[in-house]
Amino acid sequence: MSLNKGRIWLGGLAGGVVWVLWSFVVGKFIITDARYAAAQASGLFLKTPRYPFFAGQWIIMLFVLAIALAHLYSWSRQTLGPGPGSALKVGFTVGFIAGFPLNFAQATWSPIDRAFPWGWMMDLWVGSILATLVAGVIYKD
Fold first, then answer.
1. How many Cα neighbours within 13 Å face the side chain of 17?
2. If you ran DSSP here, which 8-state letter would residue 35 be given?
3. Whole-prediction pTM
């Protein structure tokens, strides 16, 4: 069976847009600028990032991940079948793997506000689900 690579890329890019918007919502309304400022003021976070233009790099990373998820969804259709149920399974599984273990450890051992690891986990987990669902809606054989 041949995959529709154009639709994979289109779905991945659309999923990336949705994920970037979700990431913005998490940053502004769950984690909040005030929490970041407080963590920086107390010395728990650096005042300037180690990597230049972090926000731009994060956005690019989300697009790359969304395109990878679109590929995973298209590959999984042969065994899971097409549709939102399969997209949900792929997004949920990848999001859990990406978001839960490290953020659970951060919440357990880091002296930072638990809103940070919870928000970061929700960004990755829900973002993966949303991106894969969008890619699944767009993908056609």
1. 7
2. H
3. 0.94
Q: Is 24 left (phi over 0), alpha (psi -120 to 50) or beta?
A: alpha
CB 113 within 8 A of CB 64: no
Domain extents for the chain?
Answer: 5-138
Residue whose structure tokens are 């919870």: 118
Percent of the chain with pLDDT strictly greater than 70:
99
The mean pLDDT of 39-53, rounded to a whole number, is 95
Rounded mean pLDDT, 60-88: 96
Instruction: Name, in order, each residue with C-beta under 8 angstroms of 22's C-beta and a sequence gap of 6 or more.
Output: 123, 126, 127, 130
| Cβ atoms 91, 24 nearer than 8 A | no
Instruction: Express each pLDDT in 91-100 by its tens digit.
Output: 999 999 999 9
**Four-CA torsion 121, 122, 124, 130, nearest 10 degrees:** 160
Q: H-helix or E-strand containing 129?
A: helix 115-138
pLDDT at 1 over 80: no
Task: Tell me phi and psi for residue 48, to 5 degrees.
Answer: -130, 145
